[in-house]
């Protein structure tokens, strides 16, 4: 009772603070001394008549695909500081530069004085070097020639690095001389050794909101500028509740931010929209687009980071500032936006192919309170004929927020519950957070204490703070031994469920980490992690370290089943193991509006498995808002309804009568499109392709498309969706970014025929309608029989939709596998490529060596039950099919729908997994 009271009090505090959240709880650049120092540095350097570069190259040695450069940093009135720079060309594309301060003395026994290298979190293994790159040490420059007509030139005097593609300058690094590596120094003589453009603010200690930061290593920030010549649009660096095309941050024009974009993982509570404030996750990867070219920068650093952006008429400037760590970045250049994300993903890894159930609809709230509650919600989905795949349990399922326990009073038999869900292939996702209740006798706490596997305070004791369970400690999953322990917690029937209960997945929340009584709702920066590094160094990778440990634990627990994990905190590379969502939004139109750009930003930043709480987390959505949110949310790669504990219940059948139909239709549309959405996941998992594509991906040379973030394309389907996100709206102005033909999704009418670029179409959309167009040139698959869950539909017939372009061409793909295991890695999958040239529609296999294991064996004969061909011209005068050496003439019908000529072939007699050709003449 007592503990419940404490928990309730804490909860009340938290909720109250949610409502009272102010910007003041989070540092501005000026209140964060390393940012202040570097912005000051930038302002000073900008006004200097002539800049004397403190960094001087002393030695160069060239190796295969890389150059090692010794540098000294001159320090006023003191010995210069040796630095080591390495420039390497990566086999997957990109030039990488690292700059380290090798001779940092050990300054005390607790805190490592080495600079932190965050690449081991971000990178998917050590990236291969392009040993065929030609690297030459000239008198004034070091030049690397590599890839597709790409050249990187490092000026030895200025340390400016210019990257060219096809002889055109794409990125200039350190052009504004903002390179700054604050070297190790002692406090006593610091002031004497500053240059005229440096200030000493906060170098050795600072304080925020009553929380001291002891800074045992003194100042150690790293900063650098990157200019993108000719570029006016830059994207990425999630997570921020802002537009897709990032804004200037120096407040010079209306609409600019005045604060830099900040990457510092925090529990931002009711976050502001249109803001550069930090959020739960951090991906320090940015890409830029201009007609004909794309470029990108990956700033490999897990510390608190600010990015100032300044758009000038002829270029965009960016200034990157991190509190600590090595200076490490990669510059990418390429022809298309895809090229950049693929290069980035080749280094950090692509989205793991999730179980198909995770790509379907998730029903969550804080909380489903009892086992009966869960089973009733589960049964109601069937009663109301609404599919769903996963039901979720938030923190209340535990005993007093002690993870790896069940509150048996209300969940007496989790095994039974899982078994009931499993009958219709449904899953349960339960929450496990990284804070561990400080309670002697609680086995997780006892083990952490005994093995010292928690995050420590700077005095070497366990760091203690408040979170859901009250006083807590934090497991230090950056420690391999803690990750091993985590494995054991998941393996040994932690939930009282046999390890083979493979329909249970995990949600790791609050992993920034969130500390209710900590600075900026997080942990003290001078807390100490594995290897003696401070939280300051590892901060943005901490959540990811937990996810990696959970992923490894689930893989060990059941190697045959793909894990699904949802994380709130993330870093570059988290896409390899988990999905993210945008945290605690609000049931208001503003948050529905910002969700699309936020999800799109995740998609261009290499972590496309992303979604927002459908319906809004805080507050109660009006029926119209809830319906519009489902109609938008069904396209989020991660599609989950979720709500705060104080909100009214809002399962779809509780909506007003007619709205139940709208919600049902929205969820059913997700299931109808699932074959195509799953195909988009497959593409993302091998190339990093976005699952939701911003318009500039499809029209990369149309600048009018560059800032559009109110609509998107779904994978390669050609489906262009413009969700309705304004109250009372009954139409949207749908921007068509190119000259292609477009057909309406609902009526098949041709709505756009070879028009001017940048055409805007008024699309009528009463509350029952989602504005969707189909772009000519694409073929996609759907399943028209909706069953209770995704796995139950795996063997169902497929419908193909062919939308011919004005040349009568179209192409598309369909990927199918068993949706949960790893057989696909050994070839047990069907992957068909479809091509249409106006006369012949062909299917060929993209699986070079299909293995007739379980899945292919069963699925190869799945019938294609319908083919719909939309075309701007009449094409059908006869139809012949050929498959497996046999010819026949299937029945077809033709229709004229407005200007669209439609041909429908019912039951063409084709098996989905085998090649075929269909001739229309
Ligand atoms: C914070 C999360 O953002 C929210 O989704 C969750 O319901 C609460 N924590 C309670 O676990």
TrEMBL record:
Gene3D superfamilies in UniProt: Glycosidases, glycosyl hydrolase (family 31), Golgi alpha-mannosidase II
Entry's Gene Ontology BP terms: carbohydrate metabolic process; N-glycan processing
Entry's localization field: Endoplasmic reticulum
Name listed for the protein in its UniProt record: Glucosidase II subunit alpha
GO MF, one example: carbohydrate binding
Domain Glycosyl hydrolase family 31 C-terminal: 688-779
Similarity-based family: Belongs to the glycosyl hydrolase 31 family.
Entry-linked InterPro entries: Gal_mutarotase_sf_dom (IPR011013), GH (IPR017853), Glyco_hydro_31_C (IPR048395), Glyco_hydro_31_N_dom (IPR025887), Glyco_hydro_31_TIM (IPR000322), Glyco_hydro_b (IPR013780)
Glycoside hydrolase family 31 N-terminal domain location: 85-308
Keyword tags: Endoplasmic reticulum, Glycoprotein, Glycosidase, Hydrolase, Signal
Native organism: Yarrowia lipolytica (strain CLIB 122 / E 150) (Yeast)
Limits of the Glycoside hydrolase family 31 TIM barrel domain: 352-680
PROSITE patterns: PROKAR_LIPOPROTEIN
Domain of life: Eukaryota
Signal peptide: 1-20
GO cellular component, one term: glucosidase II complex
Pathway annotation from the record: Glycan metabolism; N-glycan metabolism
Primary localization: endoplasmic reticulum
């Amino acid at each position: 009772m007592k503990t419940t009271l404490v928990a309730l009090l804490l909860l009340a505090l938290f909720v109250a603070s949610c409502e009272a959240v102010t910007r003041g709880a989070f540092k501005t650049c000026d209140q964060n001394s390393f940012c202040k120092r570097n912005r000051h540095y930038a302002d000073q350097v900008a006004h200097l008549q002539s800049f004397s570069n403190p960094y001087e190259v002393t030695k160069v040695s060239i190796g295969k695909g890389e150059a090692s450069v010794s540098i000294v940093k001159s320090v006023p009135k003191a010995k210069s500081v040796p630095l080591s720079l390495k420039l390497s060309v990566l086999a997957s594309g990109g030039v990488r530069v690292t700059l380290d301060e090798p001779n940092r003395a050990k300054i005390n026994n607790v805190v490592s004085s080495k600079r932190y290298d965050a690449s081991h979190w971000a990178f998917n293994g050590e990236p291969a070097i392009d040993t065929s790159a030609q690297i030459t040490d000239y008198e004034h420059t070091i030049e690397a020639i590599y890839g597709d007509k790409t050249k990187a030139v490092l000026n030895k005097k200025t340390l400016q690095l210019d990257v060219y593609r096809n002889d055109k300058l794409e990125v200039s690094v350190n052009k504004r001389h903002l390179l700054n590596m604050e070297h190790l120094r002692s406090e006593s003589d610091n002031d004497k050794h500053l240059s005229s453009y440096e200030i000493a603010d906060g170098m050795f200690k600072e304080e925020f909101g009553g929380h001291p930061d002891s800074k045992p290593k003194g100042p150690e920030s790293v900063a650098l500028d990157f200019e993108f010549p000719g570029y006016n649009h830059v994207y990425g660096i999630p997570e921020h509740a802002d537009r897709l095309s990032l804004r200037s941050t120096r407040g010079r024009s209306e609409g600019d931010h005045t604060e830099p974009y900040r990457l510092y993982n925090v529990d931002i509570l009711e976050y502001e929209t249109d803001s550069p404030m930090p959020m739960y996750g951090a991906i320090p990867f940015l890409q830029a687009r201009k007609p004909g070219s794309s470029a990108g920068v990956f700033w490999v650093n897990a510390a608190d980071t600010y990015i100032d952006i300044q758009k000038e008429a002829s270029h965009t400037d960016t200034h990157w500032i991190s509190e600590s760590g090595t200076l490490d970045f990669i510059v990418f250049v390429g022809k298309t936006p895809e090229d950049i994300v693929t290069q980035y993903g080749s280094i950090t890894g692509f989205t793991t192919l999730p179980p198909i159930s995770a790509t379907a609809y998730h029903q969550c709230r804080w909380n489903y309170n009892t086992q009966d509650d869960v089973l009733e919600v589960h049964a109601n989905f069937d009663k109301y004929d609404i599919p769903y795949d996963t039901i979720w349990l938030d923190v209340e399922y535990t005993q007093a927020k002690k993870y790896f326990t069940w509150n048996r009073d209300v969940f007496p038999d989790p095994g039974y519950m899982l078994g009931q869900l499993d009958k219709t292939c449904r899953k349960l996702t339960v929450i496990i957070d990284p804070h561990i209740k400080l309670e002697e006798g609680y086995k997780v706490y006892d083990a952490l204490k005994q093995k010292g596997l928690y995050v420590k305070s700077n005095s070497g004791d366990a760091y203690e703070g408040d979170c859901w369970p009250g006083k807590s400690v934090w497991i230090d999953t950056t420690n391999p031994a803690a990750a091993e322990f985590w494995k054991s917690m998941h393996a040994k029937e932690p939930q009282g469920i046999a390890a083979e209960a493979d329909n249970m997945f995990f949600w790791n929340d609050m992993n920034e980490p969130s500390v209710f009584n900590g600075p900026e709702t997080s942990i003290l920066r001078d807390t100490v992690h594995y290897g003696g590094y401070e939280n300051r160094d590892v901060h943005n990778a901490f959540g990811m370290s937990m996810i990696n440990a959970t992923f490894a634990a689930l893989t060990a627990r059941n190697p045959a089943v793909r894990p699904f994990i949802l994380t709130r905190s993330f870093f570059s590379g988290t896409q390899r193991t988990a999905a993210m969502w945008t945290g605690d939004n609000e049931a208001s139109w503003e948050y529905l509006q910002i969700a699309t750009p936020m999800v799109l930003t995740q998609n261009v930043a290499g972590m496309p498995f992303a979604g927002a709480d459908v319906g809004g987390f805080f507050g109660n959505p009006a029926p119209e808002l809830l319906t519009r949110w489902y109609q938008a949310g069904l396209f989020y790669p991660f599609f989950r309804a979720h709500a705060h504990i104080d909100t009214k219940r809002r399962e779809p059948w509780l909506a007003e009568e007619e709205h139940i139909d709208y919600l049902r239709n929205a969820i059913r549309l997700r299931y109808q499109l699932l074959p195509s959405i799953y195909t988009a996941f497959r593409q993302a998992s091998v190339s990093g392709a976005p699952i939701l594509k911003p318009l500039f991906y499809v029209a990369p040379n149309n600048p009018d498309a560059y800032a559009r973030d109110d609509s998107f394309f779904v994978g390669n389907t050609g489906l262009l969706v413009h969700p309705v996100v304004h109250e009372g709206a009954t139409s949207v102005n749908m921007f068509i970014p190119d000259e292609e033909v477009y057909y309406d999704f609902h009526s098949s009418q041709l709505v756009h025929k070879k028009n001017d670029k940048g055409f805007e179409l008024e699309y009528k959309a009463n509350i029952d309608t989602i504005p969707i167009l189909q772009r000519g040139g694409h073929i996609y698959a759907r399943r028209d029989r909706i069953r209770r869950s995704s796995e139950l539909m795996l063997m169902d017939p497929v419908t193909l939709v062919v939308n011919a372009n004005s040349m009568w061409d179209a192409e598309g793909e369909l990927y199918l596998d068993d949706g949960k295991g790893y057989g696909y890695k050994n070839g047990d999958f069907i992957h068909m490529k479809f091509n249409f040239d106006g006369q012949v529609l062909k299917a060929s296999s993209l699986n070079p060596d299909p293995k007739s294991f379980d899945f292919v064996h069963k699925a190869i004969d799945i019938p294609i039950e319908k083919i719909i061909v939309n075309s701007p011209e009449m094409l059908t005068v006869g139809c012949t099919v050929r498959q497996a050496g046999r010819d026949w003439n299937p029945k077809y019908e033709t229709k004229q729908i407005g200007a669209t000529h439609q041909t429908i072939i019912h039951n063409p007699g084709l098996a989905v997994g085998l090649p075929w050709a269909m001739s229309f003449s």
